[in-house]
UniProtKB/TrEMBL annotation:
SMART domains in alphabetical order: HTH_GNTR
SUPFAM superfamilies: Winged helix' DNA-binding domain
Residues in HTH gntR-type domain copies: 7-75
Protein name per the record: GntR family transcriptional regulator
Gene3D superfamilies found in the cross-reference section: 1.10.287.100, Winged helix-like DNA-binding domain superfamily/Winged helix DNA-binding domain (1.10.10.10)
Annotated organism of origin: Paradesertivirga mongoliensis
Coiled coil location: none
The keyword Transcription belongs to this UniProt entry's keyword annotation: yes
Pfam family, one: GntR
Length: 122
């Protein structure tokens, strides 16, 4: 995983975990990688993964079963979607609008490219 400079690493890791849950790579109710496993996989300090997992626990995306590990909660999909949607609408969408305004890109072109993206990727 390549980390971006404009966002805290623990938030990027939380996004990575959330995305894996949303894509079904880590099933609802199933164990997610341990702190140590994920730290090794992403080549980060385990404390950074702990911080990401705490962040996700606060949002009820994962839950810790003491002595067993972390599991994706039953309502994790809904909680991830709500958080990511709120974050996108407040932080990323205004920047997107600014760019399409400055670059004089039409909504029709955006719509066409969005449809192309969906057909190519999903």
């Amino acid at each position: 995983m390549e980390f971006r400079d404009n966002e805290a690493i623990y938030l990027q890791i939380a996004g990575y975990v959330s995305e894996n849950i949303m894509l079904g790579k880590w099933a609802i109710g199933e164990k997610v990688p341990s702190v140590r496993e994920l730290a090794v996989e992403l080549q980060v300090n385990p404390n950074t993964v702990v911080r990401a997992y705490e962040f996700l626990q606060q949002r009820n995306v994962i839950a810790n079963k003491r002595g067993i590990g972390f599991f994706a909660t039953n309502n994790s999909m809904e909680n991830i979607e709500n958080y990511r949607k709120e974050r996108f609408l407040k932080q990323e969408l205004p920047e997107f609008f600014r760019n399409i305004y400055i670059l004089n890109i039409s909504l029709e072109e955006i719509g066409k490219r969005y449809q192309d993206f969906k057909s190519e990727n999903y």
